[in-house]
# Entry
Amino acid sequence: MKIIKARDYEDMSRKAANIISAQVILKPDSVLGLATGSSPVGIYRQLIDWYHKEDIDFARCRTVNLDEYVGLTPDNQQSYAYFMHQNFFDHINIPAENIHIPHGDNRDAEAECRWYNGVIRALGGIDLQLLGIGLNGHIGFNEPGAAFEKETHCVRLTQSTIDANARFFGPGETVPTHAYTMGIKSIMGARKILLIANGKAKADILYETVCGAITPAVPASVLQLHNDVTIVADQEALSKMPGELIR
Ligand code: F6R
# Structure
């Protein structure tokens, strides 16, 4: 694993955006695996800025997102589809038909997951997968205990995740209890992986991920088995990492 230290969130975002930008410049029809959450927002902002400066062109890029809540339509403000359009897609020149996100409003889980696995295969696999990491080591919605051999599947959210999400939903709105997520096998199939992390709260789990045992109890630890992983993290998130592992 290559570990790159950034000063702060802005620096992490710029460094990671540089890696994505290089990928798109070297292979304009790249398949980018994308993530939601707070970590990648700065990356998307930076890429939008470079797009406006005509430094990067997304016209031939294809994207696949990691996950989506079951039961939410793409126009629901809590959906990951909505997030991606607000924070990235609506501001760049990627054609709508090149964007792929699991359909949260498809209640037929088996059909939806089969379709999504087929999409990833038909695209020829993922060139670069962007990942955030949960405090418990989850990647995508693969929570501790997730089997390493799964592709896209439907997960039941843990009660703590449901409770944490409840604050984003108004009275009368149903908080999702399930999500579609790429599995660990789908993620590990990506040719390159870019994991980002910032803030003190991520320091312990980042250390576990890189230096701990490879175990489903820490889903991100499986990344030790991948041959092209780059971690870009700020100094707070790297505060527990042995210095000799950092570039
Ligand atoms: C997002 C995702 C999650 C997040 C993780 C970190 O699509 O799959 O695994 O990457 O929960 O979230 P943040 O970035 O909000 O700390």
